[in-house]
Amino acid sequence: MTYDEEVEALAEDYYPGSKRKIDRTETGGSKADPDGWDAKPRVYKKNGVDTEFFTVGHLALAMNRKPLTIRQWERKGIIPKSTYQRAGRNGSQHGRRRLYTRAQIEGMIQIASEEGLLTNDRREIASTDFKARVLALFRRLSAEETP
């Protein structure tokens, strides 16, 4: 193999002008956890009880999307704002951490699956009832938590 052929073969694996490899994972660059989306939950006290919470990264992995997409969906109102939040590093309000419960994520997965958003030939999200159904899910779960 000539030098030019070697360079050309390597160029397919690296970003142009960079030493960083191109991430060709199916989830678009998120670091997929071999144990699934619900591996390593964050545990916080909620009403005095240890409760599992999951980050936007967990939700993105579960929905086979990038975390950026989930944040955009929240900004556009496609999914409701996360019910739970945790301050960023050093208690700063900047970089707040969105947190979701297992029930919220599992509900969104089920709705997305029923609406055809998790298949390889994904439907356009605007052509589905995903937004309305997820909003109803969050309202129902919130009402169940209220004593």
Describe the protein's architecture and organization:
The structure is a single chain. By secondary structure, the protein is α+β, with helices and mostly antiparallel strands. The protein contains 5 helices and 4 strands. It has one domain (37-145). The strands form 2 sheets. It has a two-stranded antiparallel ribbon with strand order 1-2. A two-stranded antiparallel sheet has the order 3-4. A hairpin with a 2-residue loop joins strand 1 and strand 2. The chain is globular.
How would you summarize what this structure contains?
It contains five helices and four strands. The strands form two sheets. A two-stranded antiparallel sheet has the order 1-2. The protein has a two-stranded antiparallel sheet with strand order 3-4. α2 crosses α3 and α4 packs antiparallel against α5.
Low-confidence stretches: 26-33
Report how far the terminal alpha carbons are from each other: 71 Å
Radius of gyration: 19 Å
Going across the major beta sheet, what is the strand order? 1-2
Sheet-strand content, in percent, reads 5-15%
Helix and strand run: HEEHHEEHH
Q: What is the number of domains?
A: 1
Number of strands: 4
